[in-house]
Structure formats: C-alpha cells, structure tokens
Amino acid sequence: MSTSIVSIRDVVKEYHLGATVVPALRGVSLEVTQGEFISIAGPSGSGKTTLLNLIGCVDTATRGVVEVAGKDTGKLTERALTDLRLHTIGFIFQSFNLVSVLTLFQNVELPLLLQGKKTAAERKQKVMSLLEQVGLASHAKHRPSELSGGQRQRVAVARALVTDPLLVLADEPTANLDSATGAQIIDLMKALNQQKGTTFIFSTHDHRVMQHANAVVRIADGKVLGRETPKEAVAHALGVEAAPAQPSVPA
Amino acid sequence: MIARFLILVQMALRNLVGSPINLLVGLLIFGGSFFFVWVGAVAESVNDGMAKTVVASMTGDGQLYSKTAKDELALLGGGMGGDGDVGVMTNFATIASELEKVPNVRGVVPMGVGSAFVASGNIVDVTMERLRGLYRALDGKSDDPVYSKLSKEELRVTIDAQKAHLRQIIKVLESDASKSKEILEEKAIDQDALEAREKVGRDEFWARFDDDVLGNLEFLENRIAPQVSDAQMLFLRYMGTDLAKFQENFDRMYIVKGTAVPKGQRGYLVTEFMHEEMMKLKNARRLDKLKIAHEEGRLIAKDDELKRFVKENRSQTRDIELQLDAKQTDEAVAKLEALLQLPEEKSLPALLEKFFDTDDQNLEARHAWFYQELAPMLELYKVRVGDMLPIKAFTKAGYMQSVNVKVYGTFAFKGFEKSPMSGSLSLMDMQTFRDLYGYLTQEKLDELKSIQKLSGSKVVTRENAEAELFGDDATLEIEATAQAIDTDKQLSGEGRKTKMEDLLTRVYTQQEIDDGVVLNAAILMKDPSQAPQTLAAIEKVSEQKQLGFKTATWQQAAGMLGNLILVFRFVLFGAVSLIFFVAAIIITSSLVMAMLQRTQMIGTLRAIGAHRAFVLSMVFHETLVLGALFGGGGIVAGALAASVTRFKAFNDASHFLFSGPVLEVQSSPGNLVIAGILVVIVSMLSTLIPALIATGVSPLRAMQSDE
Fold first, then answer.
1. For residue B313, what are the CA distances in angstroms to A114, B282, B289, B319, B322?
2. How high is the ipTM of this complex?
3. Hey, are the CB atoms on B18 and A101 less than 8 Å from each other?
4. Which pTM was predicted?
C-alpha cells in the first residue's frame, strides 16, 4: 500500500498588500503518495509556486492543514521546519540558485555539511556518486559560472538529492532552459525517481514537460481543478477537449 | 565542524574577492588600523619621549614627600600655577638610609623646588656702578680688588671711558626720542625726560661732572636710567638638591660650560637651554638659531619663522647699541662699513640693520663675522659663568630672603639638550635652597628666641597683628632702648658659623647636607618597570618605621605635565574613537548593501536547511576574514611605517614635544594588540545590523526570481 508523503486539506493562503487581501490558494486539497512523479500545472499566477512553498515548508498556510512526511507543518516551530527541509525535502529552483562562490562539489556537499552527520570520506563518496549520475563528475572543481544553464540545473538536482530526501520539489525547473535541455533535466529527474523511489513534485506550464509526469495536478485561480493524466493535461494545455478532470481524491 | 568552518572561511574569502563593496570595507579597515597604529605609535613616542625627559631630568622613577602636605607634589607647576604647599621632611638622612635597603632602589636624591625673580641690571645702572667704584678708588676708598690696583692715571682713563659710554647711551636715547617725536603728539612727550636728556646731552654737564660727582651720578640714576628699558626680570625656577648625588643618580646630566659645583659647596648651575634661550643677547641667539636651521636644510627664503628672526634682528639692535661705548661704537661702525662696503654710512643702527639683513647666501659668513668681530665687545649673556647671582625669593614664612650664589656653570641632559622641559629647572645646592625657603631649624628657632628676648620683641602672627598693634587691650608695650649689640657674644650655633665663615667657600659635610629640611626626594630604581611594586614597598617602610612621607609616581609628581600627558591620551583616544565610529558606520552601511545584494543566496541556504545560526556565523566569518586580512595588514603596515618614521624637530614647540632634536617613532606591542582588539570590536559591531538583516531573510526569497 502506498504511503502518503504530502497531505493537504482545505488550505487557504492569503497575502496582504496593505489593506487588500489577495487570495493565492482558495481551499486546496491534495494527496501525494511516496514515489510519485507529479506535475503541478497551470498558468502564471494560478498558485503553483504558492502550493509548492507550502509543501516545501518555506511558507505557512493561512488556514487548513499541510502535512509533510506525516508532520503538520502548521504546528512546527521555525527551527523544526528548517530541520524538516534539511532532512526530508530537496529543492530544485527555477534559477538554479547555486552558491556562486563554491565549486560544484561544495555546492552539492553543502546540505550534508549542514546535516553534519557524515564523515568527509562519506560525503565525498556520496557527492561524487551523484555528480557521476548527473554527468558532471569531471567538473567537480568548477564554479557554477563556468557551466551552462542545463549543467547548473543538473548540479541543482544532485544537491537536492544528496541528503536522500523523501520528497523533491522543483519550481519550474525547465523555465530557464531550452526545450532539449529541459527534456534532459526532466529525464534525469524521472530516472532518479525510478532508481531511488524519491517523490518528485514539480510545477510547470510547459505541456512538453507535463507529459513526462505520472500525473498532473491542474490548478487555476488558486483552486485545484483535479488530477489528470499527462495526455489529458497536454490536451488541456493545447486547448483540445479531452476527458473532464477528475476531482482530487486522496490516494 | 572543521569542514563547516573551512567552507565558511572559503565562502567569506571568495565573497571578499568577488565583491567590490567588501573590498571597500576592507580598505576602510586597513586604513583605520594603519592610522591607529601609526598615529598611535607617534603619539606614544611623543608621550614616552616626554616621560623619559621628565624621569631622567627631574622626577626620577618616583617621588616622596611629606604625608602632611596640603597640596599634591607638582615639580613642573601645579594646576593653578605656583608651587603648592607640599610640607617638609626633616628626617631625610633616616629616610635615605631606610630606603636604600629596599631591593629595587638605586638612589634617593633630596630636592626642593622654588622660584624667584632676578633683576638683570639696567645698562646705565651697571655703568654707573662702575663709575662709583672708580671714583671711590680715585679717593683711595675702594675695596674692589681690581680697581684698587689701578694707578690714578689708569683710573682717570677708565673713568673717561665709562663716561663716554654713558654719553653714547644718551645719544641712543636721543635718537629713540627723535624717532618717537615723529609719531607722538606734542602732549604725549614727557617734558621732564626731555629736559633731563637735554641737560646730560650738553658738553658742559660732562666738563663739570667732577665738580659734583655724587650729585651728577644721582641725577643720572634718577632721571636717565629710568628712560633706558633694557633691564629684564629673569624668572628662575630652581631645584635645590644634593648636587653631587643628583649628578651621580641622574646620569644623563653633564656640564656644558664652566664646572660642576665643588662637592659640598654652595653654588648654582643654570640649564644650558635657559642660558642660551633666555639669558643670551637676543641678536646673537637669533643668529645662532638661523645658522642651526640653515644647517638643517631650512631656507630663510622659504621659512616664515626664519624670516621673522631676520626681521627681529634687523629692527631690535638697541641692546647692542647700548652696550657699546663711544670708542667701541666707532670701532664697530668702521668694521661694519668695511664689511658691508658702505663707506658713507656712519649710523650704527643703520649699519646693524643692514648687517642683520641675513639671507641664505650670507648667513654663514655673517654669523662667523659677528662672533669674531662684534661679540668680543659685547656682553653676550645676562648671567655669566662665574657671576654672583643675587636671588631674592619669598620664603614660606612670607618675608623676602636674599642670597648671593655663584654660578659655576651650565648643564644639560644628554639627548634632551633642546628640550625646554628638561631645561626648565636650574640647580642649586641644598643649603642655599634652605636659606631661600626660610625653614627654621630648631637650632635657628632657639637662636631667634634668644635674640627676641634680648631685644624685647615678641612674635605677632599676621592674624593678630592688628589687634596687637592697635587694639584697646594691646599688651605690646615696648620701650626702645638704644644699646650696642655684641653679635659675637649673642649669636651662637648656626648664626655664628654663618657670620664667621665665608659661606661661598665653606664645604658642607654630607651630614649637614642631609640633615636639613627637604621638600621632596627622587627615587631612582634599578628596574623602573617595577616602579609600582617598589613604590608600594617604600610606602610600607614609611608606615612601619613611621617616617612620615608618602610616595608619588613620576606622572603625579610632574604636575601639570602629567595632566597634559593624560589630556593628550584622552584626545588621542577621542580621535581614534571618532575615526572608528565613522568607519563603523561606513562599514555597516556597506555590509548592509552587500547583504541586500545576496538575499537570494541566503534565502536558498535557508531553504535547503541552513539554520539562522549558520547564516549568522557566515556573516561573522566574512567580517572576521575581512578584519583579519585587512586589519592585520593595516596593523603590520602601520608598524612598519612607524619603524621607519623619523621626525626632525622644526621649531621650539616640536623640540618640546619630541623631547629633543629627533623623534624616533616606535610602536609598542601593546599598541598593536589594542589595534587588533579594536579591529575585531569594530568589525563585529559593524556586522550586527547586516547580520540581523541576513538572519531575517526568509527561505521564501529563494523561490523568487531576480530576473
């Protein structure tokens, strides 16, 4: 039986711009089980990133429950949330967000140093193995500025996976890449998902990326419209009528 | 942990290289620490220089004075001017023998500081004094050993020469008066003075001078002498001491002119600095100063101070004119005419003005010529080695005491020759000092009582004087009865000795020198760095043996100068604080800017699991690396710069500050450590606000794109 890794129930997120209240999510519910490779799709401003922020424990819900790895994030302290991010979640950012003054090796090693659990040898072995998998072992001593966009994102993937997290969140991971490189990154993520069983949740509005997911959660105007198959999602994205979206149900 | 530390340092180092703002901050820290170390070293060297001067020439490593002193000991003058009441010690011999047993004590030198005015005679007074002596010799009544040996003819010639000098002085006065006539209104002219000058300016006055020698001398004394204003009151600050002990313990002291005072005798030593600066003929002194400055590479053409010396030398030639008699004036005019190639010019003032118009080309030659041709005709010093110095001072009891003391020579302290500070106190023997101080020993008090008894007088204190003299119940009824006093019979003890022996040649025993009153004493130590402990040990001896004195550090004993050094340190501390405060503000704002540029990176670190503590430590590491590299560099550079810095004294004020002709700057290890601590403190303080900003960055910031 599949285990739920993310459980979101009736979540509302509002932002306050002066006296104006701007709703970003309006009662969202979503269940993600371990090992899934799902995409959150929707147009710009639909609430994709907000949803990922709540799942990634970098933001908290105004109302509703967000559970990650069985922990209700609304009840955790700031320190506990940081620990949850450090040990359970990996991040892949749209702009790669590598530390420019560190080498690729050091960038990937950084989460392990923050954890402080492994010895130098263990860290080296782990980091090099991941760099090997993303095809950048020979560039270990290079700095991010010496790499292409695709290479940088592969380093970011390695950094996200170095702590063996249960969940990897990727916010528009291909947005700053050309389509071929973007496809390579998604392929890499999918391969790692299959090899390690890590759950991947990534946001995108690119139909070519959506089709690689196991499932697509479509979101618009702060509401989850339902779970779709990649085929349905692509059809929606292209404006072709396909089967109606299924309401989101717990797995 | 180590890996984490290393990566933080690496991040800090790379951020440093990658950020122009960080480089700017680094340069500020470099500049601040460089400034602190270099200026600090200069200030400290000035401070040390002054301190060394004071210790080596005056205070010793510590001082002791009476426990019952009303005021603090202040050898260089107290805060309100004048010398305070520091009490007296009458048991110096015991104190010295007890203190010499204290391990670190090298010597104890008795002292007492006082001050007096000495009038240097007016040239008319001096010339007339000579005339009186000569006339007395002519009448066969002279007790002057030189005059009494002259024949009548020789006396006549010498009298005529002195008269000629007086007539020359009157000519100078006439010339002054005619100059002042041009600028003064009629009513402002002193008619009495004019008439007196006219009278003595006539040949008739001098032709009939011998008809009424005393009357004419009196006329000159009362009516002419007051018109000549060359007399000067010399202010002397002196230290009475055991001269032999002083020279032995203050080993930088050496005799420049003349000799040391013979051991045990009375005598006076003038500081060479004062002898040159205050007692020398001003034109000669200025010529000397010009020559020294010229030898140091300074040019009259480019130096305002030297230009001023030349200007003063040209306009202030009166002292020379007054000193020369008619014959000497003619001689000087002839010599100057030849030198300056001005055969038509007959006026001495005009020739002197041209002579003193020195420039960078003729200075050396004029200086040499002055000393070769003019100086032998002049009294170059107001006080000469061998002179008897008539010192008048108010005693502690408030009456005027006058003592004549022979000037044996001048002295200086090696290395501090040009320091006005080490040249501020002349030295005299302890006995003369005691006479001027007016302290009455028990023996003298007994003697005074016997005289009072004999004369029928009684002691009346100042407070009771009015009541005693004019009060209704005045009991003071004295009937004066004239009777001859046989002093030999009535004076006993000290007074008798004083009268009978020639004070100037008497040799006092060490016991006599040690036994009298002493105001304070210098303690010289084998290891001056142990001064606080040694002074504490000395205080303990005073307590245990009930010697009745207390100690003072040399800073306390220096009085105003000690305060000056303190003020100097405060000013330096204030300036440095201000500089670092401004630097801290600039560093803070720069780091805030740098931090704001890096919020996404910090947000990313927070998102991937970095706690606030890690971010805080990252910011502090960065500042520490900045401080270590640039602050350390600044400190090293400052110390190196200080070690090669030499300042040559360029005027009197700088001689005072540098305590000599050259200030060799050296930075102390303590100064460097303080600079290091300051760099760390300033860096840390400057990091507080940026650190607050950094730790406040939300991990959400990582999800926002900068593009």
1. 82, 8, 11, 11, 15
2. 0.90
3. yes
4. 0.60
